[in-house]
Specification:
By secondary structure, the chain is α+β, with helices and mostly antiparallel strands. About 45% of the residues lie in helices and about 15% in strands. The chain has helices spanning about 1-20, 25-30, 30-35, 45-60, 90-100, 125-130, 140-145, 150-160, 165-175, 200-215, 220-230, 240-245, 295-310, and strands at about 40, 60-70, 75-80, 85, 110-115, 135, 200, 250-255, 260-270, 275-285. The chain is globular, with a radius of gyration of 18 Å.
Length: about 325
């Protein structure tokens, strides 16, 4: 099954990379280097900052954005170094850590994990609940943790890794000194604004996702498999998919929590195949605030307008 997924994804990945103006080697040598060192050219900073500030006022939210166009080296930063609740954005890191640190030749991914009804995190565990009787392989758990944001799958991956702090250690190994995970699902989603636990920053998490999807943090097989899961994410229909041009390809992971927290992080490829690393994190001042996915969509649209010109009709 793993080889089949890899083959299907390689076709899609070659389409993305082959249509671009820059080869993957060129992007890694130039774009990823500037992303990792932070030597980026800021794009129309005053204009985009005004647009993002207006979104904060309209949605009564605190908004953080980091975006980096690897083809041009231009970037957008807005509250990019401030901490925000991470929520389910951690699940892609958990899957990546399993791929890099536990699996060698598919033997770990093929291992079936059995769990009980007591392990189910309700709500938010529809896929693992469906397979309660027979269990799921680690590959299947990683798949549904990303594509459906299944909370029980996320916890089971954390259990394999040794607990939430394994995500912090994984982030540090990638040079990310900000991202940290301290609790399990669902407690990690309480999102109190005063917490440093279970948080990240737009720049830190954007940089980390960029390394995982576009850089050399994973070997080729693992990178392709992680990207396959991110490309098939179903939870961002009203976030990045609503705000970015329909002709763009999106590989992303969302996160949601209390205080109206709504996040989306990943890599998007323009119609020309140029990759843009994009992280949008947001939260509200009241614990029972209802999240508004349109804020994330509007922020993504502002970034697309700034980095590539008008985003068109989304």
């Amino acid at each position: 099954m793993i080889e089949e997924i890899g083959t299907r994804h390689r076709t899609k990945e070659s389409t993305i990379q082959g249509s671009g103006k820059l080869s993957r080697r060129t992007l890694l040598a130039a774009g990823t280097a500037t992303l990792l060192t932070g030597t980026t050219a800021h794009a129309a900073a005053d204009d985009v900052s005004s647009r993002l500030r207006a979104l904060e006022e309209r949605y009564a939210s605190r908004l953080g954005v980091f975006a980096h166009h690897l083809g041009t080296g231009r970037s957008v930063r807005y509250r990019a170094d401030e901490r925000f609740p991470m929520c389910s954005v951690f699940k892609a890191l958990a899957a990546a850590a399993v791929l890099r640190d536990l699996d060698r030749h598919g033997e770990v991914l093929a291992r079936r994990i059995h769990y009980t009804e007591a392990d189910l995190v309700i709500p938010g565990s529809d896929r693992t609940a469906e397979h309660l009787a027979e269990g799921m392989t680690i590959a299947e758990l990683a798949d549904v943790a990303i594509t459906y944001s299944d909370n029980t799958a996320g916890n089971l991956l954390l259990r394999e890794l040794g607990g939430p702090t394994a995500i912090t250690r994984f982030a540090r190994s990638l040079g990310d000194r900000v991202t940290r995970l301290d609790r399990w699902e669902p407690e990690l989603n309480t999102a109190e604004p005063w917490r440093r636990t279970d948080t990240t920053s737009p720049y830190a998490i954007g940089r980390t996702y960029g390394r995982l999807v576009l850089g050399d943090a994973l070997n080729r097989r693992d990178r392709e498999l992680l990207t396959h899961w991110l490309l098939n994410n179903t939870t961002s229909v009203n976030r990045f998919h609503a705000g970015l041009p329909k002709t763009w390809t999106i590989a992303d992971k969302t996160g949601s929590g209390s205080y109206g927290t709504a996040n989306d992080v990943g890599v998007t490829w323009t119609e020309d195949g140029d990759p843009i690393v994009l992280a949008v994190l947001s939260t509200m001042p009241e614990p029972d605030a209802v999240r508004d996915d349109a804020l994330v969509a509007d922020a993504a649209r502002a970034v697309a307008d700034t980095l590539t010109g008008p985003a068109g009709t989304a």
